[in-house]
Amino acid sequence: MRLVALTRHAHSTLNVEGRVNGDPAVPVPLTDDGRAQARMLGLQLANVPFELCVHTRFTRTRETAELALRRRGLPLIEEPLLDDIDIGDLEGDTIAEYRAWKAEHARGDRFPGGESLDEAARRYAVAFRALVARPEQAILVVCHEIPVRYALNAAGGSDDLDGPAHQIPNAMPFLFDEESLRRAAERIDLLAR
């Protein structure tokens, strides 16, 4: 059985500040708690024979991956398709400001200077299909809350990418076999049309 473990990055400084970040060029390090979470993630997954780790272009995902896998010698590759949503002009705003904008707009509306939630969702579906097509039998993916949430909800057959799972904890692995990740990609495409 092929296995893909999706996890959100560990606790970052922006989690503490309650701010949003969709630009990978903005460095956002992990907090002390986040570094401890990343090490615990590594301990939780120590007996899983991963062959590869995929992370996004954001420093918090790479730092999480490096801490979790520090002695395993796995190849790490960067996958921009799993990057957080490009929120454009909302970069650095508070989570409350981000949620207020979302509440007044449809999923297909682009963030000013950025992309839409539906565009990001379709990008995630492409990434999930690419993961399924890879030759490795076990892959760890360190990405962001939204792609993990979308995959969980879509694989479970939800009609809402934002539910029933909504709050995805930092550094908690969610396991998908090949069929469930393929099913998630198909449902995401259907819901993000």
Describe the structure.
The chain is of the alpha/beta class and 193 residues long. It has one domain: Rossmann fold. It has seven helices and five strands. Strands 3-2-4-1-5 form a five-stranded mixed β-sheet. Helix 2 packs across helix 3. The model has no long low-confidence stretch (mean pLDDT 97).
Provide a compact summary of the structure.
Helix content is 41%, strand content 12%. With 193 residues, it is of the alpha/beta class. It has one domain: Rossmann fold (3-Layer(aba) Sandwich), CATH 3.40.50.
Name the descriptors:
Rossmann fold; 193 residues; 5 strands; globular; 7 helices; alpha/beta
Question: What order do the helices and strands come in, and which of them pair?
Answer:
Elements: E1 3-8, H1 13-17, H2 32-44, E2 52-55, H3 59-68, E3 76-78, H4 95-103, H5 117-133, E4 138-143, H6 145-155, E5 173-177, H7 178-191
Parallel strand pairs: 1-4, 2-3, 2-4
Antiparallel strand pairs: 1-5
Helix pairs in contact: 2-3, 5-7, 6-7
